Amino acid sequence: EVLCHGGFAYVEKKKIVEVFINIFKYNVARGLNDAWKARTKHHFGAEGGEGDESNLMAMLDSFLTHFIAEPIDRLEMSSEGSVKAGDIQGLAAIHMPLCMRNVDVHLRSKGHLKHHGRFQFGLFLKAIGLSCEDALLLFSNLMTIHGGGSLEAFTKSSYGYNVRHKYGREGKKTSYSSLSCATVVGMPPNVDQHDCHGCPFRFKDEGKLRETLAIERPNPFGPTTLPKVRPSVADIEDIVTDAKAMHYTRACYKYFMATHDGVRRDGLFRSPYEYFSVSRECEEGAKKEGGEEGGEGGGEGPSPARVGAKRTLFGAVKEE
Ligand code: SF4
After folding, report:
1. Which residues pair with 318 in a beta bridge?
2. Comparing C-alpha atoms, which of 257, 243, 190 is closest to residue 44?
3. Which of 31, 199, 202, 309 is the most buried (most CB within 10 A)?
4. pLDDT of residue 80
5. Distance, CA 199 to ligand 1 centroid (Å)?
6. What's the confidence (pLDDT) of residue 320?
């Protein structure tokens, strides 16, 4: 920030420090991100070594999982208004990762969300394209316990202020980004049954995690026409093992792979928004491939083109 005084331009010392700190943080974040990608490749290329090497890799995993910064090459957020308040429940059941699905289910069944839940879910909904007006509508309908009972009352309440604040319409007018997995994983633990925030691979106890994993979900490739999906018993064991070993994002990746049949993806998700975007692209890709314009297999299951083929990262079919 440059200030002009008597014809001289000078930069406040504090601001210079801030600029250097930002550059430093950016470089550290980029280095961590590169390390994370390299480590992810290693995971999927070859299983870890033995003894010291294996211990070192476990330490590296733990470090990268907990301290990786916000994704640098962040996905472009959806345009505001591209999803409506009425779409959220369906999208939660089909495409949202478990951390957001949990909050949606909790909000609908309990009629209230505590601060961390509202923060995590509100920023995520904004990222997927829910407008501020629709967010107010959604939360005023669902926050039945303390929300005021009408859109008008909710909008005037501190909860309404809080929603507008996330969209940069109140306070410092900062438009906040949605949270990365590292941030959601690092949130304070749930203290009672009213809490539902955080990453379920970290926060849920083993029994509850198993129950959640075993629930049948609509098929992300064709929610209205294809059979429901759920991980196999072996997949659940594998996922729980990772969660217990504190490999939360890897457990989440495995859950995604177990419920998105045929997708090929080599990298872990860095944010709930990334998980959601990739899942949604599966449905969009399947619609195109199934021939919305009347092509083969439209809406009746996997098309012949998928036989012997694998999906790429974003759902397009590639011959093996
Ligand atoms: Fe959500 Fe990330 Fe945890 Fe998956 S790993 S449940 S996307 S916080």
Report:
1. 310
2. 257
3. 199
4. 85
5. 5
6. 32
**Residue count (the chain):** 320
pLDDT at residue number 19: 65
Q: Which residue bears the tokens 């009972």?
A: 149
Closest CA to 114 of 89, 68, 145: 145
Pocket test for ligand 1, best of 40, 70, 98, 277 (most atoms within 8 A of CB): 98
Residue matched to tokens 């590169």: 34
Whether the CB of 272 sits within 6 Å of ligand 1:
yes
Tokens of 84: 């409506």
| CA atoms of 97 and 92, how far apart (whole Å) | 8
Taking the chain (320 residues) in runs of 10, the rounded mean pLDDT of each run is: 45 62 63 63 49 60 53 63 95 98 96 94 96 96 88 93 92 84 92 92 94 96 95 97 95 97 88 95 87 43 34 35
Alpha carbon distance 38, 34 (integer Å): 6
- Are the beta carbons of 248 and 201 closer than 8 angstroms? yes
